[in-house]
């Protein structure tokens, strides 16, 4: 029977196997096959281990799939005692199915609860659907923001004990194995077992000195490997321990009191928090997290990240009535949190299948085949000469140790250690020595833009005002901006800045824009921790004069809508909406009469020269618009029928070392591409400036045409950036000259992957600029390149570049 469950988990092969997917990304988490213990198979397995001195144990440790076929018998998932788990990297492991007898109200789980754990993730058996699914997706599936906002009930002692039994302690622990345990795991490596066999044979045959040399070399390589392995594990353990959360209050009804536990809050309910998310973004910029809205929209961590606290990030300040503590609902704990996922990605990284090691195993296999021929020939000769049995055994086995070098792994380890010491002299450090060989095979380097190729700060270059549907002269002087009152007010008010420890903090773009106006910002209240939902608004005012503008409502920036808005009221009780965001986004929100005819050409002019362009617009609200209405109004009701005020031009200069690094890579025959979330034309300009593409190279932007029919295939369009010529021809993709390259944005990438997947290999090898790409799309690009046998280095400054 084959079906897909409500949670997106596909079950196949008559209920004996199942593929488990991530519901949000549709990425395969693992594939499982169910087994039960077979008495006959178990007896045979133990018997073979006894008579063959544990060799089957070593073999099946490396090949768990073979062990399942011998020791266990296939069964239905509902009756499984063991599961053969294949992860998304095709690595196999055997997991035990356990059960706990708990009854939890409100969850779609019936006792006894059957589950298994794989790579620190717990999967629960759902009786109704006859499938396993991950615990974190099961618990918070299909719950709206309003349900979270209204549900402030605490747990009683019984609820707590039941949930604790299911979820386990809220810990992210990296186990540091002892030297003895690491040594035991190391010696069961087939190479070391072969070395032990060879040394024993040589000692029996009086090759004492040679055997002693191999013992010394093996001990040196194994001890070096053990020290490095444990050191890396200890470093990771120390990093995780050093970032432990503080103790916070947990609302739980136990005899009318509260208890304290060490937990990581994951979702904000009432109140505000100012946080530092540099661990996620790489940018140490204070961000404001607001309470979750009372909306019927289903809660999603990515869409509602402005209302979500992520484990591992640092809370700088909380704000609530009277400075009281902020209340948060815990969504995930332990390894299911954001911090836990980061640690898991380190503990279980994508395997690096180096050609060097693959060729080494092939080499040993060929030598072993040659040795077998030698053994057969020696057996024939010694039997013909009527040699005694002991001599025949020693001499024939000696052939294997002569042909197959037992000291090969030790020699490889010594070579790696020597390479590492040479690199240290060049001030090049590597925490994973086996990757030294991989670095020598890199074919392509993928760069993020902001903070990597360019500085992570944005400087305001100029402002291009727009009045009555016409662009005016470029404004470079702050005093001239005051000739455009609405534009100046929009720049001074349309932001999410706040004061932290007396200093103005927030997004660098907002900070530079506000400082350019030379206005002042005042927040109500003397205590920063009490500045929450106050009737008195945040007030901005120029350095001279009595004019004041109060910000009574803010709609935070979202990457999904690509803009932010504020509702402001002045002393004359006139109410305005100011919206800023991506120019292409505001183009669709503004009244067509306010859009200049040269909107597109002016935008391209700036972006082609590497500037980042932000559009600003406004509209006047009715005179009877009240404060209460501002708190209830939806953002789509105000982000419409706007009037364009102009462009804000930001510049992001290259780092001093960028061009020299790209040139060094080019001389080493290592290609370079850019993968960024910035505007297409800005990315192309920066790519030219840093010489990822040459000045004379042609750049073709790949785009797809809009179709009215959902079933119709979108047509691919190529636009030559140099001459502005547009060509509708798919065949051109396969016939691109050597000095012609592609640029593609995230939306086009999605459509091509969906409708033209066969073109991806041809496109990706000729593409130099990937613009407007989300973090998960960056990962997709890397994986597609790896499928084409590229060894890729990803260079970035944030965890959004670590996919």
UniProtKB/TrEMBL annotation:
InterPro entries with a match to the protein in the record: ATPase_P-typ_cation-transptr_N, ATPase_P-typ_cyto_dom_N, ATPase_P-typ_P_site, ATPase_P-typ_TM_dom_sf, ATPase_P-typ_transduc_dom_A_sf, ATPase_P-type_domA, HAD-like_sf, HAD_sf
Origin superkingdom: Eukaryota
Family, per entry: Belongs to the cation transport ATPase (P-type) (TC 3.A.3) family. Type V subfamily.
NCBIfam families named among the record's database cross-references: ATPase_P-type, P-ATPase-V
Domain Cation-transporting P-type ATPase N-terminal: 155-201
P-type ATPase A domain residues: 268-346
Membrane disposition: Multi-pass membrane protein
Sequence intervals crossing the membrane: 42-60, 207-227, 363-383, 389-418
PROSITE patterns: ATPASE_E1_E2
Listed EC numbers: 7.2.2.-
Organism lineage: Eukaryota, Metazoa, Ecdysozoa, Arthropoda, Hexapoda
Keyword terms of this UniProt record: ATP-binding, Magnesium, Membrane, Metal-binding, Nucleotide-binding, Phosphoprotein, Translocase, Transmembrane, Transmembrane helix
Protein name (record): Cation-transporting ATPase
